[in-house]
Amino acid sequence: MADPGSTTTAPEINRGLAGLIVAETRLSMVDGTNGRLNYLGYSIADLAQHAQFEEVLYLLWYGELPTRSELDELNGKLTGARKLSTSVMNVIKALPKSGDPIDAIRAGVTAMAMEDPTCHDLSHDAVREKSIRLAGAMPTMLAAYSRLRKDEQPLDPDPSLNTAADFLRMVHGKRQSKTFEDAMNAYLVCVCEHSMNASTFSARVTISTISDIYAAISTALGTLKGDAHGGANQKSMEMLLEIGSPDNADNYVEESLRTHRRIMGLGHRIYKTRDPRVNQLMGHSAKLAEETGNATWHNLAQRLEEITATNQFFLDRKLFPNVEFYSAPLLYMLGMTTDMMPGAFAISRVGGWSAQVLEQLEDNHLIRPSALYTGPESQTYVPIDQRG
Q: Which of 99, 112, 153, 252 has its CB surrounded by the most CB atoms within 10 Å?
Protein backbone atom coordinates (compact mmCIF):
# COMPACT_ATOMS: atom_id res chain seq x y z
CA MET A 1 0.00 0.00 0.00
CA ALA A 2 1.12 3.57 -0.59
CA ASP A 3 2.46 5.61 2.35
CA PRO A 4 -0.44 7.73 3.68
CA GLY A 5 1.89 10.72 3.65
CA SER A 6 2.99 10.19 0.09
CA THR A 7 2.08 12.76 -2.53
CA THR A 8 1.87 10.08 -5.22
CA THR A 9 -1.53 10.16 -6.88
CA ALA A 10 -3.41 6.91 -6.42
CA PRO A 11 -4.40 5.23 -9.69
CA GLU A 12 -7.97 5.76 -10.76
CA ILE A 13 -10.19 2.71 -10.37
CA ASN A 14 -12.82 2.35 -13.06
CA ARG A 15 -15.31 0.08 -11.34
CA GLY A 16 -17.29 -1.99 -13.79
CA LEU A 17 -15.01 -0.76 -16.61
CA ALA A 18 -17.71 1.79 -17.52
CA GLY A 19 -16.69 3.92 -20.46
CA LEU A 20 -13.44 2.06 -21.12
CA ILE A 21 -12.89 1.04 -24.73
CA VAL A 22 -11.31 -2.42 -24.75
CA ALA A 23 -11.80 -3.48 -28.37
CA GLU A 24 -12.89 -2.44 -31.82
CA THR A 25 -16.01 -3.96 -33.35
CA ARG A 26 -17.79 -3.56 -36.66
CA LEU A 27 -20.69 -5.76 -35.58
CA SER A 28 -23.05 -3.36 -33.81
CA MET A 29 -23.25 0.35 -33.07
CA VAL A 30 -25.01 1.29 -29.83
CA ASP A 31 -25.81 5.00 -29.50
CA GLY A 32 -27.11 5.40 -25.99
CA THR A 33 -27.67 9.14 -26.21
CA ASN A 34 -29.93 9.06 -29.23
CA GLY A 35 -31.37 5.59 -28.75
CA ARG A 36 -29.95 3.97 -31.89
CA LEU A 37 -28.80 0.41 -32.59
CA ASN A 38 -27.57 -1.08 -35.82
CA TYR A 39 -25.90 -4.28 -36.95
CA LEU A 40 -23.14 -3.55 -39.49
CA GLY A 41 -24.95 -0.37 -40.50
CA TYR A 42 -28.48 -1.81 -40.71
CA SER A 43 -30.95 -0.29 -38.25
CA ILE A 44 -32.58 -2.63 -35.79
CA ALA A 45 -35.98 -1.35 -36.97
CA ASP A 46 -35.32 -2.45 -40.55
CA LEU A 47 -33.95 -5.81 -39.50
CA ALA A 48 -36.72 -6.55 -36.98
CA GLN A 49 -39.43 -5.65 -39.49
CA HIS A 50 -38.01 -7.35 -42.57
CA ALA A 51 -35.24 -9.87 -41.83
CA GLN A 52 -35.30 -13.48 -40.78
CA PHE A 53 -33.12 -14.34 -37.80
CA GLU A 54 -30.99 -16.51 -40.09
CA GLU A 55 -30.23 -13.49 -42.28
CA VAL A 56 -28.95 -11.66 -39.20
CA LEU A 57 -26.74 -14.60 -38.29
CA TYR A 58 -25.28 -14.56 -41.79
CA LEU A 59 -24.74 -10.81 -41.56
CA LEU A 60 -22.81 -11.13 -38.29
CA TRP A 61 -20.74 -14.14 -39.35
CA TYR A 62 -19.99 -13.16 -42.96
CA GLY A 63 -20.19 -9.36 -42.83
CA GLU A 64 -22.99 -8.86 -45.36
CA LEU A 65 -26.60 -9.85 -45.92
CA PRO A 66 -26.94 -13.14 -47.82
CA THR A 67 -28.24 -13.80 -51.28
CA ARG A 68 -31.03 -16.36 -51.56
CA SER A 69 -28.60 -19.17 -52.36
CA GLU A 70 -26.26 -18.16 -49.53
CA LEU A 71 -29.15 -18.11 -47.06
CA ASP A 72 -30.34 -21.50 -48.30
CA GLU A 73 -26.86 -22.93 -47.71
CA LEU A 74 -26.70 -21.50 -44.19
CA ASN A 75 -30.21 -22.74 -43.41
CA GLY A 76 -29.17 -26.21 -44.50
CA LYS A 77 -26.31 -26.18 -42.00
CA LEU A 78 -28.43 -24.71 -39.21
CA THR A 79 -31.28 -27.19 -39.62
CA GLY A 80 -28.80 -30.05 -39.75
CA ALA A 81 -27.29 -28.84 -36.48
CA ARG A 82 -30.68 -28.73 -34.73
CA LYS A 83 -30.65 -32.52 -34.46
CA LEU A 84 -28.69 -33.21 -31.28
CA SER A 85 -26.31 -36.13 -31.13
CA THR A 86 -27.33 -39.04 -28.93
CA SER A 87 -24.69 -38.16 -26.35
CA VAL A 88 -25.73 -34.50 -26.11
CA MET A 89 -29.41 -35.42 -25.86
CA ASN A 90 -28.58 -37.97 -23.16
CA VAL A 91 -26.87 -35.21 -21.17
CA ILE A 92 -29.98 -33.04 -21.42
CA LYS A 93 -32.17 -35.99 -20.39
CA ALA A 94 -29.96 -36.77 -17.38
CA LEU A 95 -30.18 -33.27 -15.89
CA PRO A 96 -32.32 -32.55 -12.81
CA LYS A 97 -35.71 -31.21 -13.78
CA SER A 98 -35.51 -28.54 -11.10
CA GLY A 99 -32.73 -26.50 -12.66
CA ASP A 100 -32.63 -23.30 -14.66
CA PRO A 101 -33.15 -23.97 -18.38
CA ILE A 102 -30.20 -21.78 -19.33
CA ASP A 103 -28.00 -24.18 -17.36
CA ALA A 104 -29.31 -27.06 -19.47
CA ILE A 105 -28.03 -25.19 -22.51
CA ARG A 106 -24.68 -24.71 -20.79
CA ALA A 107 -24.45 -28.44 -20.08
CA GLY A 108 -25.33 -29.22 -23.68
CA VAL A 109 -22.70 -26.85 -25.01
CA THR A 110 -20.06 -28.49 -22.83
CA ALA A 111 -21.12 -31.91 -24.10
CA MET A 112 -20.77 -30.66 -27.68
CA ALA A 113 -17.22 -29.57 -26.90
CA MET A 114 -16.31 -32.93 -25.43
CA GLU A 115 -17.46 -34.84 -28.51
CA ASP A 116 -15.86 -32.48 -31.04
CA PRO A 117 -12.39 -33.74 -32.07
CA THR A 118 -11.66 -30.35 -33.65
CA CYS A 119 -12.63 -28.46 -30.50
CA HIS A 120 -9.29 -26.62 -30.30
CA ASP A 121 -9.12 -25.59 -33.96
CA LEU A 122 -9.28 -21.78 -33.80
CA SER A 123 -8.97 -21.12 -37.52
CA HIS A 124 -11.57 -18.66 -38.79
CA ASP A 125 -13.51 -21.13 -40.90
CA ALA A 126 -13.50 -23.79 -38.18
CA VAL A 127 -14.78 -21.41 -35.51
CA ARG A 128 -17.48 -20.13 -37.84
CA GLU A 129 -18.65 -23.68 -38.57
CA LYS A 130 -18.79 -24.40 -34.83
CA SER A 131 -20.75 -21.17 -34.39
CA ILE A 132 -23.31 -22.44 -36.89
CA ARG A 133 -23.57 -25.75 -35.06
CA LEU A 134 -24.05 -24.01 -31.72
CA ALA A 135 -26.72 -21.66 -33.07
CA GLY A 136 -28.54 -24.64 -34.55
CA ALA A 137 -28.31 -26.85 -31.48
CA MET A 138 -29.08 -24.45 -28.64
CA PRO A 139 -32.80 -23.91 -29.44
CA THR A 140 -33.25 -27.69 -29.52
CA MET A 141 -31.53 -28.00 -26.14
CA LEU A 142 -33.84 -25.42 -24.57
CA ALA A 143 -36.98 -26.89 -26.11
CA ALA A 144 -35.96 -30.44 -25.12
CA TYR A 145 -35.31 -29.48 -21.49
CA SER A 146 -38.59 -27.57 -21.37
CA ARG A 147 -40.50 -30.67 -22.41
CA LEU A 148 -38.52 -33.14 -20.30
CA ARG A 149 -39.24 -31.33 -17.07
CA LYS A 150 -42.96 -31.58 -17.88
CA ASP A 151 -42.50 -35.34 -18.44
CA GLU A 152 -42.95 -34.88 -22.19
CA GLN A 153 -40.63 -36.34 -24.80
CA PRO A 154 -38.46 -33.96 -26.87
CA LEU A 155 -39.46 -33.54 -30.49
CA ASP A 156 -37.17 -33.97 -33.45
CA PRO A 157 -36.50 -30.76 -35.40
CA ASP A 158 -38.38 -29.98 -38.59
CA PRO A 159 -35.86 -28.83 -41.23
CA SER A 160 -38.60 -27.18 -43.28
CA LEU A 161 -39.10 -24.49 -40.62
CA ASN A 162 -36.95 -21.53 -39.66
CA THR A 163 -35.40 -21.20 -36.21
CA ALA A 164 -38.24 -19.22 -34.63
CA ALA A 165 -41.02 -21.45 -35.97
CA ASP A 166 -39.29 -24.72 -35.17
CA PHE A 167 -38.30 -23.65 -31.67
CA LEU A 168 -41.90 -22.81 -30.81
CA ARG A 169 -43.08 -26.09 -32.36
CA MET A 170 -40.54 -28.10 -30.34
CA VAL A 171 -41.62 -26.31 -27.14
CA HIS A 172 -45.39 -26.65 -27.63
CA GLY A 173 -45.60 -29.91 -29.54
CA LYS A 174 -47.25 -28.39 -32.59
CA ARG A 175 -46.69 -25.53 -34.97
CA GLN A 176 -47.82 -22.11 -33.76
CA SER A 177 -49.55 -19.30 -35.64
CA LYS A 178 -47.79 -16.86 -37.95
CA THR A 179 -48.32 -14.13 -35.34
CA PHE A 180 -46.42 -16.26 -32.81
CA GLU A 181 -43.65 -17.13 -35.25
CA ASP A 182 -43.22 -13.53 -36.39
CA ALA A 183 -43.02 -12.33 -32.78
CA MET A 184 -40.41 -14.95 -31.91
CA ASN A 185 -38.38 -14.10 -35.00
CA ALA A 186 -38.45 -10.38 -34.17
CA TYR A 187 -37.31 -11.11 -30.64
CA LEU A 188 -34.39 -13.23 -31.89
CA VAL A 189 -33.38 -10.45 -34.29
CA CYS A 190 -33.61 -7.71 -31.67
CA VAL A 191 -31.39 -9.31 -29.01
CA CYS A 192 -28.84 -11.07 -31.21
CA GLU A 193 -25.99 -8.58 -30.84
CA HIS A 194 -25.32 -5.59 -28.60
CA SER A 195 -21.65 -4.61 -28.67
CA MET A 196 -19.56 -5.02 -25.50
CA ASN A 197 -22.18 -6.15 -23.01
CA ALA A 198 -21.15 -8.22 -19.99
CA SER A 199 -21.69 -11.66 -21.55
CA THR A 200 -19.97 -10.67 -24.79
CA PHE A 201 -17.02 -9.33 -22.82
CA SER A 202 -16.78 -12.58 -20.87
CA ALA A 203 -16.81 -14.58 -24.12
CA ARG A 204 -14.00 -12.40 -25.46
CA VAL A 205 -12.00 -12.82 -22.24
CA THR A 206 -12.31 -16.61 -22.46
CA ILE A 207 -11.32 -16.89 -26.11
CA SER A 208 -8.44 -14.44 -25.56
CA THR A 209 -6.76 -17.13 -23.43
CA ILE A 210 -6.68 -19.39 -26.53
CA SER A 211 -9.45 -21.56 -25.15
CA ASP A 212 -12.20 -22.83 -27.48
CA ILE A 213 -15.50 -21.40 -28.66
CA TYR A 214 -17.56 -23.84 -26.61
CA ALA A 215 -15.84 -22.59 -23.46
CA ALA A 216 -16.39 -19.00 -24.57
CA ILE A 217 -20.10 -19.60 -25.14
CA SER A 218 -20.40 -21.46 -21.84
CA THR A 219 -18.77 -18.52 -20.07
CA ALA A 220 -21.17 -16.12 -21.79
CA LEU A 221 -24.16 -18.24 -20.77
CA GLY A 222 -23.09 -18.07 -17.14
CA THR A 223 -22.78 -14.30 -17.38
CA LEU A 224 -26.08 -13.84 -19.21
CA LYS A 225 -27.86 -15.75 -16.47
CA GLY A 226 -27.38 -12.91 -13.99
CA ASP A 227 -30.36 -10.78 -12.96
CA ALA A 228 -28.51 -7.62 -13.99
CA HIS A 229 -28.15 -8.99 -17.53
CA GLY A 230 -30.15 -11.68 -19.34
CA GLY A 231 -31.99 -12.73 -16.21
CA ALA A 232 -33.72 -9.35 -16.19
CA ASN A 233 -36.45 -10.55 -18.57
CA GLN A 234 -37.41 -13.23 -16.04
CA LYS A 235 -37.43 -10.69 -13.21
CA SER A 236 -39.48 -8.27 -15.30
CA MET A 237 -42.16 -10.87 -15.94
CA GLU A 238 -42.18 -11.93 -12.31
CA MET A 239 -42.80 -8.28 -11.44
CA LEU A 240 -45.73 -8.10 -13.86
CA LEU A 241 -47.19 -11.27 -12.35
CA GLU A 242 -46.82 -9.79 -8.88
CA ILE A 243 -48.63 -6.59 -9.90
CA GLY A 244 -51.32 -8.70 -11.54
CA SER A 245 -53.39 -6.03 -13.30
CA PRO A 246 -53.04 -2.59 -14.90
CA ASP A 247 -55.37 -1.36 -12.15
CA ASN A 248 -52.65 -2.08 -9.59
CA ALA A 249 -49.85 -0.32 -11.46
CA ASP A 250 -50.17 3.11 -9.83
CA ASN A 251 -50.01 1.71 -6.32
CA TYR A 252 -47.07 -0.50 -7.24
CA VAL A 253 -45.08 2.44 -8.58
CA GLU A 254 -45.91 4.57 -5.54
CA GLU A 255 -44.87 1.82 -3.17
CA SER A 256 -41.68 1.21 -5.17
CA LEU A 257 -40.72 4.86 -4.86
CA ARG A 258 -41.47 4.84 -1.15
CA THR A 259 -39.49 1.64 -0.44
CA HIS A 260 -36.72 2.21 -3.02
CA ARG A 261 -37.72 -0.95 -4.86
CA ARG A 262 -36.43 -1.17 -8.39
CA ILE A 263 -38.97 -1.39 -11.21
CA MET A 264 -37.65 -4.01 -13.59
CA GLY A 265 -37.42 -3.22 -17.28
CA LEU A 266 -36.59 0.45 -16.75
CA GLY A 267 -33.16 1.94 -17.28
CA HIS A 268 -30.09 0.75 -19.16
CA ARG A 269 -26.34 1.01 -18.65
CA ILE A 270 -25.95 2.55 -22.12
CA TYR A 271 -29.32 3.93 -23.26
CA LYS A 272 -30.31 7.24 -21.67
CA THR A 273 -33.52 7.30 -23.68
CA ARG A 274 -36.00 4.68 -24.87
CA ASP A 275 -34.27 1.49 -26.00
CA PRO A 276 -34.63 1.32 -29.82
CA ARG A 277 -35.66 -2.34 -29.59
CA VAL A 278 -38.71 -1.48 -27.47
CA ASN A 279 -40.92 -0.25 -30.31
CA GLN A 280 -40.40 -3.45 -32.28
CA LEU A 281 -41.17 -5.75 -29.37
CA MET A 282 -44.06 -3.60 -28.17
CA GLY A 283 -45.77 -3.96 -31.55
CA HIS A 284 -45.49 -7.75 -31.51
CA SER A 285 -46.61 -7.88 -27.89
CA ALA A 286 -49.77 -6.00 -28.87
CA LYS A 287 -50.48 -8.44 -31.71
CA LEU A 288 -50.01 -11.41 -29.40
CA ALA A 289 -52.35 -9.85 -26.86
CA GLU A 290 -55.02 -9.48 -29.53
CA GLU A 291 -54.60 -13.00 -30.88
CA THR A 292 -54.53 -14.73 -27.51
CA GLY A 293 -57.40 -12.69 -26.15
CA ASN A 294 -55.40 -11.88 -23.03
CA ALA A 295 -54.11 -8.32 -23.05
CA THR A 296 -53.37 -8.18 -19.32
CA TRP A 297 -49.58 -8.32 -19.50
CA HIS A 298 -49.20 -6.07 -22.51
CA ASN A 299 -51.60 -3.48 -21.07
CA LEU A 300 -49.87 -3.67 -17.71
CA ALA A 301 -46.49 -2.93 -19.30
CA GLN A 302 -48.05 -0.05 -21.20
CA ARG A 303 -49.61 1.35 -18.03
CA LEU A 304 -46.30 1.18 -16.19
CA GLU A 305 -44.64 3.05 -19.03
CA GLU A 306 -47.35 5.73 -18.97
CA ILE A 307 -46.91 6.26 -15.23
CA THR A 308 -43.12 6.39 -15.24
CA ALA A 309 -42.98 8.56 -18.36
CA THR A 310 -44.63 11.42 -16.45
CA ASN A 311 -42.90 10.91 -13.10
CA GLN A 312 -40.02 13.29 -12.41
CA PHE A 313 -38.06 10.67 -10.45
CA PHE A 314 -37.73 8.45 -13.52
CA LEU A 315 -37.23 11.36 -15.92
CA ASP A 316 -34.40 12.86 -13.84
CA ARG A 317 -32.60 9.53 -13.77
CA LYS A 318 -33.27 8.81 -17.43
CA LEU A 319 -35.02 5.55 -16.61
CA PHE A 320 -36.82 4.58 -19.79
CA PRO A 321 -38.09 1.17 -20.97
CA ASN A 322 -35.33 -1.23 -21.99
CA VAL A 323 -35.49 -4.36 -24.11
CA GLU A 324 -36.91 -6.45 -21.26
CA PHE A 325 -39.95 -4.20 -20.73
CA TYR A 326 -41.96 -5.70 -23.59
CA SER A 327 -39.91 -8.83 -24.27
CA ALA A 328 -41.11 -10.23 -20.93
CA PRO A 329 -44.84 -10.14 -21.79
CA LEU A 330 -44.02 -11.13 -25.39
CA LEU A 331 -42.17 -14.28 -24.31
CA TYR A 332 -44.80 -15.08 -21.70
CA MET A 333 -47.58 -14.90 -24.28
CA LEU A 334 -45.47 -17.14 -26.53
CA GLY A 335 -45.70 -19.78 -23.82
CA MET A 336 -42.35 -19.35 -22.09
CA THR A 337 -42.26 -19.95 -18.37
CA THR A 338 -40.45 -17.14 -16.57
CA ASP A 339 -37.32 -19.22 -15.97
CA MET A 340 -37.10 -20.09 -19.67
CA MET A 341 -36.70 -16.44 -20.61
CA PRO A 342 -32.93 -16.13 -20.03
CA GLY A 343 -32.49 -19.26 -22.16
CA ALA A 344 -34.63 -17.73 -24.91
CA PHE A 345 -32.31 -14.72 -24.80
CA ALA A 346 -29.30 -17.03 -25.14
CA ILE A 347 -30.50 -18.86 -28.26
CA SER A 348 -30.45 -15.48 -29.99
CA ARG A 349 -27.34 -13.91 -28.46
CA VAL A 350 -25.17 -16.89 -29.40
CA GLY A 351 -25.04 -15.27 -32.83
CA GLY A 352 -23.50 -12.11 -31.45
CA TRP A 353 -21.22 -13.93 -29.02
CA SER A 354 -19.76 -16.15 -31.71
CA ALA A 355 -19.30 -13.24 -34.12
CA GLN A 356 -17.48 -11.34 -31.36
CA VAL A 357 -15.29 -14.40 -30.72
CA LEU A 358 -14.37 -14.42 -34.41
CA GLU A 359 -13.53 -10.73 -34.17
CA GLN A 360 -11.39 -11.24 -31.07
CA LEU A 361 -9.39 -13.97 -32.78
CA GLU A 362 -8.61 -11.73 -35.77
CA ASP A 363 -6.19 -9.70 -33.64
CA ASN A 364 -6.08 -11.49 -30.33
CA HIS A 365 -4.54 -10.06 -27.17
CA LEU A 366 -4.92 -11.69 -23.78
CA ILE A 367 -7.48 -9.65 -21.83
CA ARG A 368 -5.91 -9.26 -18.43
CA PRO A 369 -6.74 -6.04 -16.53
CA SER A 370 -5.01 -5.04 -13.31
CA ALA A 371 -6.31 -4.56 -9.77
CA LEU A 372 -5.16 -2.13 -7.10
CA TYR A 373 -3.88 -4.12 -4.11
CA THR A 374 -5.27 -2.85 -0.80
CA GLY A 375 -4.26 -5.69 1.53
CA PRO A 376 -1.47 -5.84 4.18
CA GLU A 377 1.98 -4.79 3.00
CA SER A 378 4.00 -7.47 4.82
CA GLN A 379 3.22 -10.17 7.36
CA THR A 380 5.28 -12.91 9.00
CA TYR A 381 4.08 -16.49 8.83
CA VAL A 382 3.40 -17.94 12.28
CA PRO A 383 3.21 -21.76 12.70
CA ILE A 384 -0.33 -22.91 13.45
CA ASP A 385 0.40 -24.04 17.01
CA GLN A 386 1.79 -20.61 17.89
CA ARG A 387 -1.19 -18.59 16.66
CA GLY A 388 -3.61 -16.80 18.93
A: 112
DSSP class of 17:
G
User: Dihedral sign, CA of 378, 382, 384, 387?
Assistant: negative
Does 38 score more than 80 pLDDT? yes
Mean pLDDT computed over 131-155: 98
Look over the chain and give the mean of its residue pLDDT values, rounded to a whole number. 93
Which residues contact residue 130 at a Cβ distance below 8 angstroms, ignoring those fewer than 6 apart?
116, 118, 213, 214, 354
Q: How far apart are CA 281 and CA 260, in angstroms?
A: 28
Q: Three-class SS of residue 29?
A: strand
Q: What is the DSSP string of 61-93?
A: HHSSPPPHHHHHHHHHHHHHHHS--HHHHHHHH
Q: Which long-range contacts (CB under 8 A, 24 or more apart) does 335-340 make?
A: 335/168, 335/171, 335/172, 336/171, 337/146, 338/234, 338/237, 338/238, 338/241, 339/100, 339/101, 339/234, 340/101, 340/142, 340/146
What is the distance between the alpha carbons of residues 361 and 63, in angstroms, rounded to a whole number? Answer: 15
Domains of the chain and CATH, by start: 42-218+339-362 (1.10.580.10), 232-333 (1.10.230.10)
Are 240 and 264 in contact, with CB atoms under 8 Å apart?
no
Burial class of residue 321, CB neighbours in 10 A (0-12, 13-18, 19+)? buried
List, in order, residues 6 or more apart from 297 with CB less than 8 Å away: 237, 240, 285, 289, 328, 329, 332, 333
Q: Are residues 200 and 220 in contact, defined by beta-carbon separation less than 8 angstroms?
A: yes
At residue 314, the pLDDT reads 85
Of the candidates 239, 227, 234, 320, the residue with the CA atom closest to the CA atom of residue 276: 320
The per-residue pLDDT for range 175-192, each reduced to its tens digit, is 999 999 999 999 999 999
pTM (predicted TM-score): 0.93
Does the pLDDT value for residue 22 go beyond 90?
Answer: no
The pLDDT tens digits for 234-279 are 999 999 999 999 999 999 999 999 999 988 878 777 777 888 999 8
Tell me what the mean pLDDT of segment 363-383 comes to.
94
